[in-house]
Amino acid sequence: MTGANVYGCMARFDSAETLRGAALQLRHAGYTRLEAYSPFAVEGLAEALGPTRNRLPLLVLLGGLFGGIGTLALQYYSAVIDYPIDVGGRPAASWPAFIPAALEMTILCAVLAGVVGMLLGNGLPQLYHPVFNVARFAEASRDGFFLVIRADDPHYDDARQALLDLAPLSVDEVPA
Fold first, then answer.
1. Residue ranges of the chain with pLDDT lower than 50?
2. Are 129 and 174 within 8 A, CB to CB?
3. Cβ(163)–Cβ(35) under 8 Å?
4. Which residues contact 14 (CB under 8 A, 6 or more apart)?
5. Which of 129, 159, 158, 135 is nearest to 147 (CA)?
6. d(C-alpha 45, C-alpha 149), whole Å
7. What was the pLDDT predicted at 94?
8. How far is Cα 77 from Cα 54, in angstroms, rounded to an integer?
9. Around 67, how many Cα atoms within 13 Å sit in the side-chain half-sphere?
10. Whole-number Å distance between alpha carbons of 146 and 156
11. Is 18 left (phi over 0), alpha (psi -120 to 50) or beta?
12. What is the per-residue pLDDT for 16?
């Protein structure tokens, strides 16, 4: 049943509770590549869909380290190596004077890395998604609760029957 032109199998449910329950049942049945769509946030749905890897904290840390160390290195290079100026006998490498700019650049680079990482992690900007090919999916922004089992799931061959066993309002194949 899996093919290169199939994104997955989509089921529509009548309420948020049934959507969350269906996601839990499918997770316990061994399905790992699940996506859920609803017109509002459903409490517990993210946990029902399963754990996701979050690399955003590491990316923010690396962005902050890059900003802070890079600024300290730039200030050291400019004040000590490239253009040393003797002002009142002070040392050229006066690190307390370097701290405010390094702190500001640490925060700026960490925030920029976080925003870029969040956008990339969410897959944005995304102007097209295969679920838009299903006509019923237009109801997802009003009153539709949808659950998709992606075709790259190891148990996808039984996906249609697994969704039908959950008694959804409808089941559709999502073309790629």
1. 1
2. no
3. no
4. 145, 169
5. 159
6. 15
7. 86
8. 36
9. 22
10. 17
11. alpha
12. 95
Q: Which two tokens stand for residue 56?
A: 């955003």
Q: At how many degrees (to 10) do helices 95-121 and 56-76 cross?
A: 150
Among candidate residues 67, 128, 129, the one with its CA nearest the CA of residue 101: 67
Closest CA to 153 of 135, 139, 122, 174: 174
pLDDT at residue 2 in the model: 53
Q: Please, what is the Cα angle at 176 between 172 and 19, to 5 degrees? A: 40
- Residue pLDDT, tens place only, 68-101: 999 999 999 999 999 998 888 888 898 899 999 9
Helix (H) or strand (E) holding 21: helix 16-28
Q: Which residue, 27, 40, 33, is CA-closest to 145? A: 40
126 three-state secondary structure: coil
Q: Which pLDDT score, from 0 to 100, does residue 15 have?
A: 95
Residue closest to 140 by CA, chosen among 50, 60, 36 = 36
What is residue 8's three-state secondary structure? strand
